[in-house]
Every structure is written in structure tokens, then in C-alpha cells.
Amino acid sequence: MNQVLLIGAGGVGSVVAHKCAMLPEVFGGITLASRTLAKCEAIAAQVKQRTGRDIATAQVDADDVRQTAALIRRTGAKLLINVALPYQDLALMDACLEAGCDYLDTANYEPKEVAKFEYGWQWAYQDRFVRAGLSALLGSGFDPGVTNVFTAWALKHQFDEIHTLDIIDVNGGDHGKAFATNFNPEINIREVTAACRHYEGGAFVETAAMSRHQAFTCPDGVGSYEIYRMYHEELESLVKHLPSLRRAQFWMSFSPNYLKHLEVLQNVGMTRIDPVEFQGVKIVPLQFLKAVLPDPGELGKSTTGRTCIGNVLTGLKDGVPKAVYIYNICDHQACFAEVGSQAISYTTGVPAMLGAKQLLAGAWRKPGVWNMEQHDPDSFMADLQVHGLPWRCLELTPAQAASFQVA
Ligand code: NDP
């Protein structure tokens, strides 16, 4: 029986726990562990109510390698699914090496003190995972995650070579709050306030955050949204693993209301990550802000509308230029009805479960540290269709593809 250890009992952790529990033939035993035991217990109760399955719970400080390694040994876990925060990635990879367990996450490592993320820190574990005969799967969420697999699938089935990639993440949902982020506020705000980087002409080019934007009309009546170019971690691995890429960009939709609040919060210093003295104690303004903002895990009930996330790809097939758009549309209320979460947690948690399924089945189990696009995409793409994230691939006209050609 496959034992898995899930670390992190937030919005995403809840979805992973539910979706794993729905597949007892793959996930024979599940332990959900996090810093706050009460959150694990609350999720376990919901899982029992919705699926009838019992999952074990435990308290753990994921920054403490020995504690996690002991928990891995105690549970007999074959795989650790990390849906805590990017700060914990390296400590959890160390714990997996110490206790002999495979590893999966949904976001690349980021040090707490510097708002900077890159794969270098985790790719540096390659030799150690190979020597230990263990597999690490990096970035198995939606973006990164499904967007990487969409690209690998397009290269396998639609193109001989891919020249441009535009990943477009639209959240057409409304949570009814004045301001809220749809995943961990600290990580979200660090990401969107960072300088933009996109890949062009063989190098990453830096531009001011949010300085380039355009309208994008989603298919299937989701609507038109203003999308903003920003840096996102899958660009780093995709340009490395697809050397034919000439340009790669990432775009995300933001409402005028979100941007207005964010600008004010930045201007008054509330997004700072350096400690400030307040009434004799040191506090980090962004961590304080997280404490007063709505918990993304609690937004499911009030959120309506749909997300639409996908890739516009251009390149050559049989010497002829070609463009496609591969995308998924996900309904916030349908996610809430199924697992009690909004669609951002859902679109991250389902691919985490599916990546884990690939590892446990052995299909993606290869000693070393891997990004999603390095594995064969077919069975993962088939699983998306039946486990809650159906996708479509549309052929685009040259005019549609050209709207992303302007540098
Ligand atoms: P939340 O803040 O809701 O949940 C994080 C959980 O991790 C909390 O339960 C928290 O515990 C726990 N945690 C934090 N530090 C520790 C620690 N030291 N030891 C043990 N547990 C800890 O975040 P989300 O669920 O919104 O996001 C989870 C992850 O998913 C993040 O890494 C995020 O970047 C990633 N993500 C990836 C996406 C993708 O598409 N690839 C999209 C969205 C998110 P406590 O409750 O005590 O604070």
C-alpha cells in the first residue's frame, strides 16, 4: 500500500488531501501534516465527510529536517508532497534524502529574506537524488506544472519545433472582498511586485513590474481581461529544456481594483519584507499584512466565475508555421461543490495529486530532480481530462497568434 505524506494544510493542501482520498487504489494511506495541527484535523474531518476516508494527521515544523525525516520514517511514506511554502523546499528535500522518500512540490525555492526565486538551488540536488535512487518532481501545480506539460505535449504532438510561448493565466473570478489574494498572500505579493523578466533572443530581459499589458479574450464566454506581463518560474526551466524557444512570456490578469489596492499597499510600505521596529518588537510588514487579509483557503464559498489558464504556442510543423492555444477553464463554484475550495487552490491541488500519481505508478519515477516538461506528457494529459481539469487545444489563425508577437 502506497503511503504518502502531505505537508501543508492551507488552501492547496486541502484540495490535495481530498483528491488523493478519492483514489484509494493509488493513495493507500495518507498523512496530512502541518505547523498547525488543528488545520490538519479540520481538513481530515471534511475529507471523511466528503469521501468516507480516514486520513492521519500530524504536527510538524517543516523547517526542521530531523523532525520531518522522523515523520517520514514513522508513516512509512514513499512520497512527500510539499504544499507548504516555497521557503520549506530545501529543508523538505533534505528530509527526503535523509529518510529515503521521493519528493514533489508546486513552487520553487525562495529564501524568506530575499524576494527572489530560481531553480538553481533545487537543481543543485540532482546528484544527491540520483545517488540515493530517489525522484524529485518540481513545480507540479498549474503554473508551473500543467503549463509545462502543455508545452511538452505540444512539442510531442503539434510541432517539430516551438519558437514562441505565451502562458496566460486569467482569473475571471470574483470573491466579493475589497482585496484578497487567491493563494498565500505573502508569496503572491512577493511574486507580483517583482521586476518582470521575459525571455527573448537568448537571454532574459528585465522590465518594470506591470509595465506591459494588453487585453485578452478567453474562449467559451469567460470574457475579456487585461493581462499583465510578469516573471514566472516555469519560464526558467522551459527555456532550458526547449532550446528552440526564441521568446517566452508569462501573463496574468489583474482587476483594476486589485492593482489599486496593491499600489497603495506598496506606497505605504506594507509590502516590505525587511523587519521594522513596532512597539518594541520586530515585525515584517508583509507578514503582518498576510495576517489581516482574507485566508485564500476560506474564499471558496464566496467566489464565483471561472479561471482560464493556457499556453499560446507558435512554431513549425513539417516546415509550415503553426500556432495553437491549449487551455483549461475551471469554475470556482464547481470546485467548491466538489472539495470546498476555490479554483486557484483546485487548479494547483489537482496537478499535485496527478504528479504524485505518476511517481507512485512508476511512470515518472526516475532518480534525480526533474521539471514536469522532462517527463512524457501523455498519461498526465489524459488524467487531467478525467480528474477535474479538462483541456482543449485550438488551432489559432496567424492574426490571433500575432497579437503576442509584439516585443
Ligand atoms: P497557505 O498559506 O494557505 O498554506 C500553507 C500551509 O503551509 C499552511 O498550512 C502553513 O501552516 C504551512 N506551513 C508554513 N510553514 C510551515 C512550516 N515551517 N512547517 C509546517 N507547515 C508550514 O498556502 P497555499 O495553500 O495557498 O499555497 C501552498 C503552496 O502552493 C505555496 O508554495 C504556493 O506558492 C503554491 N502554489 C502553487 C501554484 C501553482 O500553480 N504552481 C498556485 C498557487 C499556489 P500554518 O497554517 O500554521 O500557517
Would you write up a description of this structure?
This protein is α/β, with parallel strands linked by helices. The protein folds into 2 domains: 3-138, NAD(P)-binding Rossmann-like Domain (Rossmann fold), CATH 3.40.50.720; 146-342 and 390-402, Dihydrodipicolinate Reductase, domain 2 (2-Layer Sandwich), CATH 3.30.360.10. The chain has helices spanning 11-21, 37-51, 65-75, 89-99, 120-123, 126-132, 146-157, 185-192, 234-241, 256-267, 285-292, 332-339, 343-361, 378-386, 398-402; strands spanning 3-7, 29-34, 56-59, 79-82, 102-105, 135-138, 161-171, 196-200, 203-207, 213-218, 223-230, 247-253, 276-278, 281-283, 306-317, 320-331, 368-371, 391-395. The strands form 3 sheets. Strands 7, 8, 9, 10, 11, 12, 15, 16 and 18 form a 9-stranded mixed sheet that branches. Strands 3-2-1-4-5-6-17 form a 7-stranded parallel sheet, with helices on both faces. The radius of gyration is 20 Å and the shape is globular. It starts with a strand and ends in a 5-residue tail after the last helix. 50% of the residues are buried. The mean pLDDT is 95. The site of NADPH dihydro-nicotinamide-adenine-dinucleotide phosphate (NDP) has 33 residues, from helix 1 and helix 13.
